[in-house]
Specification:
This protein is α/β, with parallel strands linked by helices. It is built from 10 helices and 7 strands. It is globular, with a radius of gyration of 17 Å.
Length: about 270
């Protein structure tokens, strides 16, 4: 497969950041994109809504469906999946991108935030996968991509933020288990994670502000890596925990300087790498 023309992607959290970048990369091929995200009205601290994302996707050459979805709600996800299938005829690719983050230790993490991270990250990923799989079974080259880190079960990845690591690793465990469970169905389940910090709203607002953004890469590196994965044969490409620059290196891309927000700054490694 040389491009994603005519393919349908269901992307959670696609109103901004990495999710939107993946959507726009697919749209340039002429893909259909269901934007499954919460932001329907402008947010005071966050750019973009499902409606502005839809406009960008269609301007890029794709077709868009804006769906108000909180991935914690089974009813909302089910309705969005059904609407996507009714509009575009099926689902070829699921991207579990929606995520909640709080990098705090055990005593500083209240249970409301713990529940949010686990409901959005782990449960949301499981739910969206469960509801999309019946449609992915009918697709020609079906892929599920979770934006989650490699499963490195070492103390250092947990000790600073136990709750968040558990929630993100839950997404990665879905990759590990579902890749095996649905191997005979030919559905690829993979994870993708960045080598460095990525300039997203979370980095801007929660992790370090403008200084950290300058030392980050643009979301487009994740989008290009995801695109390369989607073009691979699903039966031969499953159960992997990909890192963005390694995917691009396999595609012959060696110069990554264009992805840097500020090429003069030293990049900050991601905290799971």
């Amino acid at each position: 497969m040389s491009d994603l023309k005519g393919k349908t992607l269901f992307i959670t959290g696609a109103s901004r950041g990495i999710g939107l970048a993946i959507a726009l990369r697919a749209a340039r091929d002429g893909a259909n994109v269901a934007i499954a995200a919460k932001t329907a009205d402008p947010h005071p601290k966050l750019e973009g809504t499902i409606h502005t994302a839809a406009e960008e996707i269609e301007a890029a050459g794709g077709k868009a469906l804006a769906c108000v979805v909180d991935v914690r709600s089974e009813e909302a996800v089910q309705a969005a999946v059904e609407e996507t299938v009714a509009k575009f005829g099926g689902i070829d690719i699921l991207v579990n991108n929606a995520s909640a983050i709080q990098l705090t230790g055990t005593l500083a993490t209240n249970m409301k935030r713990f529940d949010l991270m686990h409901q959005v990250n782990t449960r949301g990923t499981f739910l969206c996968s469960r509801l999309c799989i019946p449609h992915l079974k009918k697709a020609e080259n079906p892929h599920v991509l979770n934006l989650s880190p490699p499963l490195n079960m070492e103390e250092r990845w947990f000790s600073g933020h136990v709750a968040y690591t558990m929630a993100k690793f839950g997404m990665s465990q879905c990759v590990l288990g579902m890749a095996g469970e649905f191997r005979r169905d030919g559905i690829a389940f993979n994870a993708l994670w960045p080598r460095t910090a990525i300039a997203t709203a979370a980095v801007q607002n929660l992790l370090g502000g403008d200084e950290m953004v300058r030392k980050s890469r643009k979301p487009e590196i994740m989008a290009d890596a995801a695109h390369a994965i989607f073009l691979r044969d699903a039966r031969d490409c499953t159960g992997n925990f990909f890192i963005d620059d390694e995917v691009l290196a396999a595609e012959g891309v060696s110069d990554l300087s264009g992805y840097a927000v500020d090429p003069s700054e030293e990049l900050i490694p991601d905290f799971f790498i």
